[in-house]
Amino acid sequence: MLLSRQEFERLVLEALEELPPEIAAALDNVEIVVEREPKYRHRRAAGIARGTLYGLYEGIPLTERASSYNLVPPDVITIFQGPICRTARTIEKVRQIVRDTVIHEVAHHFGITDERLRQLGRY
């Protein structure tokens, strides 16, 4: 599914706006960015050499922040447009993958692991 960068970013913003207010309000020192494709460093950070990478959380989860946490660069949640758009055949499917990816990466910001997300049926 071909989408412009602007159209894709709108879907990411829509997914963020759909987060429950208490979750959105608790997002702390985190930046959401869109990249066209994952780079080598993204794959290395995610621990995958091959396969599809829709999103990546890089930072210090809220559950691991201590009282000395200050003057720290923002955590970064990156959403990758290329892999999502290549997987989806419809705008509705792009919207669903973006929403699921945003939720998945926000969960990491809150300290929820991939293992726990699997247990919850969210991986």
- The geometry reads as globular
Range of strand content? 5-15%
Secondary-structure element pattern, one letter each = HHEHEEHHH
Give the C-level CATH assignment: Alpha Beta
Distance between the termini: 23 Å
Short structural description:
The chain is of the alpha+beta class. It is built from six helices and three strands, in the order ααβαββααα.
Describe the protein in words.
The mean pLDDT is 92. The chain has a single domain (5-64, 72-119), classed as 2-Layer Sandwich (Zincin-like). It has a three-stranded mixed beta sheet with strand order 1-3-2, with helices on both faces. It has 123 residues and is an alpha+beta fold. The protein has helices at residues 5-17, 21-26, 40-46, 81-87, 91-109, 114-119, and strands spanning 30-35, 55-58, 75-80.
Question: Which key phrases capture this entry?
Answer:
6 helices; Zincin-like; 123 residues; 3-stranded mixed beta sheet; 47% helix; globular; alpha+beta; 3 strands
How do the strands and helices of this protein lay out in sequence?
Blueprint: H1 5-17, H2 21-26, E1 30-35, H3 40-46, E2 55-58, E3 75-80, H4 81-87, H5 91-109, H6 114-119
Parallel strand pairs: 1-3
Antiparallel strand pairs: 2-3
Helix pairs in contact: 1-5
